[in-house]
Input
Amino acid sequence: MDDGPDIVTLGMLIGQPTRAAMLLALLDGRGRTATELADIAETARPTASFHLSQMLEGRVLRVDRQGRHRYYRLAGAGIAELLESLLVLAERPRPREARFGPRPAHMRHARMCYDHIAGTLGIGLVDGLVRSGALVEGADCFHLTGEG
Output
């Protein structure tokens, strides 16, 4: 595998969140300074400089000097096309991340969860039915009693 294109390194160069923010800011074709890119990526200037040097070394970026200023740009049209393609693919719907319990307060209070009542109201209802003797807890479910 050492003799083919190194897509792993390219993927790592563009796939890191700070670098991705900087690269997307450069898609408009304008050159930006390291300070501007640090602000855009919401990172410290030394961190931005580290990432910029990695992307220069990986030939994802190029730098143009104008006087004492350095302006970073995408290395070429191929990088821009790659980023645009990734943006199109990233727009496709993805499975949502698993959450452990709902965030909104009303959903924590009362909701249906598959085939049962859930939330604090559902728990309170079950607790009340157990206290009244209408339900008894089995090994993995509740059972109605004669009172229930």
